[in-house]
Structures are given as structure tokens and as C-alpha cells.
Amino acid sequence: MSGPRHIMVLVCLVGLPRIEMAASNLLITTSVTRCTTIVVAKVMAVTPSIWTGGVPERRTLEVQFRLTDILRDANKQHPALGIYTVVLPQERWPHGRLDGSIAFWSDKALQTGQTYIVFTNARLDRTARLFEVPEMVEPVTDNVNAVSEIEWIVKSMDLPLTVQARSVARLFQPEQRSKGRFLAEYAAGLLAFGTDSDTVELAQVLETKEGSAALSSSAQQTLLWELFQRARSVDVPPANLLRVFDRLVARNIEEAGDTTQIGLSALQVNILQNYVPWIAKSERASSMMKISIPFDEARRLRLKVDKLEQNRNISVEQREALKQFRSLIPSN
Fold first, then answer.
1. Does residue 48 have a cis peptide bond before it, meaning omega lies within 30 degrees of 0?
2. Which residues touch 135 (CB under 8 Å, ≥6 apart)?
3. Residues 135 and 163 in one domain
4. Nearest Cα to 68, choosing from 113, 121, 3?
5. What strand order describes the sheet that includes 82-92?
6. Residue 166's pLDDT band (boundaries 50, 70, 90)?
């Protein structure tokens, strides 16, 4: 297939990460560790049927997958490598209308040559069920090596948290291929469930521009969101988690582009609407913000906020949130 190849990742839906006992160690439960079967498969052929009438319109895709690798088989179901042909339903609703649950594959443009990582918790009475009952699909680009990240997580998740955190820290090095959301999610889990002594090296790496720059743009947003969810889900979040979260919030505000003529970026809006109000209300998070921001960075932040406040395109609520953020910036 000509042009850049796109990889899509199928993941299971999970709630807030939790911890379980794995032998004598704590197991961080995330998208990867929660799913019992993980395989890699490539689309070899796609044959669509004709759309039927009615609301919604319906059709099927006859898809031939080649299962090429098994990344995890926790329940010892032994999916076999090889070629599988499955029939996948699709539905098409009128714009703006959705009266019921939609078939999983309805919004997926399956094409010959695509490669997928399939995650499932289904009981596999036959291997083809891997492709019939995935929980969620997420595309990633070739600049993120999702397979390697998942292999690392599966291999390392039973090790002591200190070993895992130090190993992850070494992975956050700028390379040609960016780190993706699976590693970002797992790093946040380590900061949440490891002690501050366990995660000191990981926190130091993620605080640096180079460390966070090793993540893709979407993975950086995932890391912020996961840190936020973990920080607000416990009464006393670890200091390292709060410090990394506060520093990344501040850096994303400081490094945002020139927005004096247009509205705020989506990330800035998310920070102002969700993260800043929570930091301001959290005594621990606001105190950490005031002691963790270096003087030069604090000065640049105040200048950035001054510039953003001059933006006529932002809402009254966003302007109030900027004032709230200014109050969190250390004054000296």
C-alpha cells in the first residue's frame, strides 16, 4: 500500500486505574494490563456488501485478518497464528441522529494493509472472536511504536515498582519515534501508586522539556489527563505526581502559541476549565505549584498570562480562570 501506513490499536474500556496483588508486588491496572489477550493482526482483504435501506442503513464487511503475533495470553487461550475471515456489521445513521447502540466497526474505514493491535477480554471459543468483540479502537501513526510499548509493559508489570519506574524513566528519551499513550498512561500509574522514593527518577525525567517532548502530542495530553484523574481520586496524592502534573500544566500554558488573534487552543481551554480550578481548590496541589516553579519560568508564565488576558476572543469564564492561574504562579 502506498503512502504512510496507519496502525490502529484496539483497547478495552477501563475506568480509573486501580491496583491488584500480583504475587508480592502491586499490579497497576491500565488499558494494557486489564486486557487478557493482546495480538497483532494485519488486514489482508476487505469485501463490503451493499448498504441496505432503512434507518439506520446496514451492511457487512467480510474481512480477512492475518494474526501475526501474540503479545499477551494471560488466560492461556492460545490463539493460533494464521489467517481468519470474519464478517463485521456496520451501521450508518442520518447526521445528528443516533437512536441506539451502534455496531462497533461502523465508524472504522478498514483498508487492506492496515495493521491492528487487538485487545480483548473475551473467552475465545474460536480465535476469530478476537476481531468480532473488541471494546474500543484507537488509531496511532507510524511515529509511535505501540507494539514495543505494550511488549515492555507486559514484560515489566510484575516487577517491583521501583524497577519499573526506573526502567520507564530511561525510555523517555527523544528518538525518531515518539512515545505513545500506552506508555504515558502507565507512567502516570507508576507515579500514582509508587512511593516518592520509587518514582524520583521518573518524576525528574518527566519534569524536563526533553522528557515530555519524547511523547507524541496526543500522548502528552493523555499524560496530563491521567495525572489529573489519579491526583483527584485520592485524598493525599504522592508529591511526585503533583509536582509533575503542576509543572506540565504550567509548561503547556507557557509554551502555547500566539493566540492574541484567535481563541485559546483546545489544550489551553482544557487546562483552564478542568485543571486550574482543581489545583486552586487543592491545598496540596496549589502549594506544590508555588514551590515547584523556578523563578525564570514563573516570570515567563506571568508574561504569558498577561498576553492571553489581552485576547478579545476568550470568554469571561476563561478570563476568570486565567486570573485564578495567575494566583498560583509563585511571585518570587
1. no
2. 10, 11, 12, 13, 119, 120, 121
3. no
4. 113
5. 82-92, 57-73, 37-48, 115-120, 7-11, 136-140
6. very high
Residue 324 inside a domain? The answer is yes
Cell numbers that stand for 41 in this block: 493482526
Task: Show the DSSP H helices in the chain as ranges.
Answer: 31-34, 129-132, 146-156, 161-171, 181-193, 200-207, 209-213, 217-232, 239-254, 266-270, 276-281, 283-292, 295-309, 316-328
Average pLDDT over residues 201-206: 95
CA distance 89 to 107: 11
Mean pLDDT value of segment 72-86: 94
Shared domain check, 303 and 204:
yes
Domain total of the chain: 2
Instruction: Show the cell assigned to 36.
Output: 487478557
Beta-carbon contacts of residue 320 (< 8 Å; ≥ 6 apart): none
pLDDT tier, 96 (very low <50, low <70, confident <90, very high otherwise): low
Looking at per-residue confidence, does 121 or 142 come out higher?
A: 121
Q: What pLDDT was estimated at residue 23?
A: 34
Which range of residues forms the domain containing residue 51?
7-140
Percent of the chain scored above 90 by pLDDT? Answer: 48
Q: Give φ, ψ of 182 to 5 degrees.
A: -65, -45
Does the pLDDT of residue 209 top 60, yes or no?
yes
Which of 254, 201, 251, 206 has the alpha carbon at shortest distance from 226? 206
